[in-house]
Amino acid sequence: MGTRTRLGAIDAGSNAIRVVIAELAGPSSAELVRIEAERIPVRLGHNAFTQGMLDRPTIDGAVAAFVHFRERFDHHGVGIYRAVATSAVRNASNRDVLLHRLYHEAGIELEVIEGEEEARLVRKAVMQAFGQGAQPPRAILDLGGGSLEVNLRAGSAWRGNSLPVGTVRLMETFGLDGAIGDAEAGMVRRYTATLMQPISRSTGNGQASMTAAITGGNADALAKIFGASESGAMPGFDLAELEKGLPDLVGATVEARMEKFGIKRDRAEVIGIAGLVFATAARQLRLQRLVAPGVGVREGVLIELAETAREEQAKAEGAHDKALLTAARGFANRVDHDTTHGEHVRLLARALFHQLRDVHGKIAARSSRAAPRCRRGRQPARAPQALRVHDPLGAHPRPRRYRARARRADGALSPQGWRARERDHQQLAAAEGAPRPAAQDDRAAARGRRPR
Hints:
This protein is an alpha/beta fold. The protein has helices at residues 56-76, 87-91, 95-106, 115-130, 167-174, 182-202, 217-226, 239-251, 254-261, 265-268, 271-284, 297-316, 320-334, 339-355, 357-370, 384-387, 400-409, 415-432, 438-446; strands at 5-12, 17-24, 32-40, 80-85, 110-112, 139-143, 148-154, 157-163, 210-215, 236-238, 287-291, 388-389, 398-399.
């Protein structure tokens, strides 16, 4: 029995850095057993959106967090990991300094991903959280410290969008410290609505009864504050409940939010902005209910790591065809391919192949009978036309072996070489019914011999 594969995923967000370690039960099992998860409040978005770079204390804090993650990886025997960074690091001009230090001091390679990739990973995690039998949400809103990823579903296809609307970005850009007044709240709503308009226009005039999934740390906190506690149901709340409670939330100070809702300071500083953004985006998309599945980028990374590990295990056990199919499906998901259509085409192609088995079977048999057989690794005999090449010294093509012999001689040939070449030309001329080259006759006459 082989050891179980342990996986690690790191999400270096703009407001905090998160890590999760899980174990893959087996090659045929879809279950991931979570071993450990941790969140370290290193705000990479600090100064990244206002000054365009990461300051020294922020880089030092991130390196210390990743050194800790490496220790946890080694402790649990993590075999495969992926670490991704999102909007803050993507926006920083000195991100190479952070990447270099993380690689050399923590031994972890951090990958900076684009907004579209971030939206795709969140979508993958949300779809697994909902399950195959459940009705998928109409939209997915992933709000982080630097950006808002919006996934919209049209049938079985998804379209992802990334907007520069993040809680840390808005807090530092607009100077929203502590309680948020009506004028400041209106400014956040107008800014969010302006960026959401192109997306909302593309959705048309649908019914205002759709449900969306919201992800991120602020989404989970808002679901606990405004959501009704129903056993077995996914946490969520109606848009009307959020709008009703927003004035008290945004009007409170950071300390009052911490005391009233039992949240940490870094969360209390941005949760009011998050509520305004979610409410505005929901109105733009005509959504009535928001649910929080409790997943994010790191869960999407973990799912893909599990798929990769299963492919490797399947290849090791000889199931190469199944691994290729899984890889093809993964690539199709990356380019937002309509998998339903692809599966239908695959089934039709396989059925057509089996129905035409007699036809392509006879063609293969006829081809195998027509092909000459080889023994002891020798090449099969070929027609003379297939071996002939142009002779720059004569008027007729000649065999390859003759050309090779002429190249090796590189000048006057020995008598045996001349006789061999004469025989080659004689055989070719007799086979084609053509006269021998005049040049060969002249060479023979010059040697005092009768041309053959």
